[in-house]
Design brief:
Length: 361
């Protein structure tokens, strides 16, 4: 993992001695294999192999910015919580909670709004991209369809991070600007009132593979070319079959079974690499060179992925069928999170001059 280039100057803040990792997961839609390989698996492994303090949360208040369907919000929150737990996130080890269960976060967001220049938000990539789309149309207001949630997205995200004085925030490249904004907002507050907030650093992992999708483009929900991680709940087709069917659809060329094939030009081999051991990868490379039929290569790929995913899938289905267990896990996480957030919000309010007028007995 490489820390991104944002300066690491934390001398002006009381940086906690520990490394505190925090990351948010937006609960929209269901997840695919690219999300698993690119985000879930590395995050869980990184935590398992370290002593860092860790906070992972479902950013449902961020989810409602772009999705106005209550059923989708509700169902995805459940599915995504189940996915992370099923894939091995240990809720005893990691503080795992739902953003909306920690009311101190949106309260802090309001306070931080008042330490955030509007001009800073005008420069946010996501907001600017939405404006640019409107500008290309004739007779359309530049801010059409843009709600204040989208405009203020980075402030809520800053509250998520600063609330827990996170030091390291693992994110995708597209989120680096948001972390810089959180630093900026923290800096303004600390300077204006009192040094309460640690300046966080974005952590971007450059080694994580980006999977290719069924059609040869990058695997992405918006291209509709994904391999589902667990599949939809569908009584007709089992989740395992859904995964198998998707793998069978990976686009290949018309080479005959025993023709030598170029592994480095094949999505099948590329995805295989994300699941196999170095020996298995070398062996598959050899099979490509001597000639393996596309159908057989796909079967080998399915088996490889399924070996890793099948136990998780079973646990996922169990959790989806028993949301009570999930809810208990999330409530336990909220309780742990609020032990921090109550204190941090109390300090914040005092720092800005909001406190009781007198002690009542
Ligand atoms: N904006 C992040 C994303 O879209 C999700 C998120 C919300 C987040 N709050 C956060 C990530 C705090 C890291 C820290 O992926």
């Amino acid at each position: 993992m490489t820390s991104n280039s944002t300066s690491n100057n934390q001398t002006s803040t009381e940086a906690p001695a520990v490394k505190r990792v925090l990351t948010g997961i937006k609960p929209t839609g269901t997840l695919h294999l690219g999300n698993y390989v690119g985000a879930i698996r590395p995050a869980i492994q990184a935590i398992q192999n370290s002593d860092d303090e860790a906070f992972f949360f479902l950013a449902d208040y961020h989810g409602i910015i772009g999705c106005y369907d209550p059923t989708i919000i509700h169902e995805s929150t459940k599915a995504i919580a189940a996915t992370w737990i099923a894939c091995g996130l240990d809720p005893e080890r990691v503080t795992f909670y739902r953003q909306s269960d920690v009311p101190e976060i949106p309260e802090l967001a309001w306070v931080l709004n008042c330490s955030c220049a509007k001009g800073l938000m005008n420069r946010a990539h996501a907001y600017k991209a939405a404006v640019d789309i409107n500008m290309e149309k004739e007779d359309v207001d530049p801010d059409q369809g843009i709600n204040m949630g989208l405009f203020g997205y980075p402030v809520l995200m800053a509250a998520d991070i600063l609330m827990f004085n996170a030091t390291h925030v693992p994110v995708g490249r597209d989120q680096i600007q948001h972390i810089e904004m959180a630093r900026d907002i923290a800096g303004t507050f600390n300077h204006r009132y009192k040094t309460l907030f640690t300046l966080p650093s974005a952590v971007v992992d450059d080694d994580i593979p980006l999977l290719t999708g069924l059609d040869g483009r990058k695997m992405s929900k918006s291209y509709g070319n994904t391999i589902p991680l667990f599949g939809d709940t569908n009584p007709q087709v089992s989740a395992e079959k859904q995964m198998q069917k998707a793998i069978m659809k990976i686009v290949t060329n018309s080479q005959l079974p025993d023709e030598p094939k170029d592994p480095d030009d094949s999505a099948i081999f590329e995805i295989y690499k994300a699941f196999a051991t170095p020996e298995e990868i070398a062996d598959m490379r050899e099979q490509f060179a001597t000639g393996i039929g596309w159908g057989d290569a796909k079967k080998a790929l399915f088996n490889k992925i399924n070996d890793e995913i099948a136990p998780f899938r079973e646990r996922y289905q169990e959790l989806m069928a028993n949301p009570k267990e999930l809810e208990e896990i999330l409530q336990m996480g909220a309780e742990k999170a609020r032990r921090h957030s109550r204190k941090q919000l109390d300090k914040t309010r005092r720092a800005i001059g909001i406190k009781p007028l007198a002690k009542l007995k």
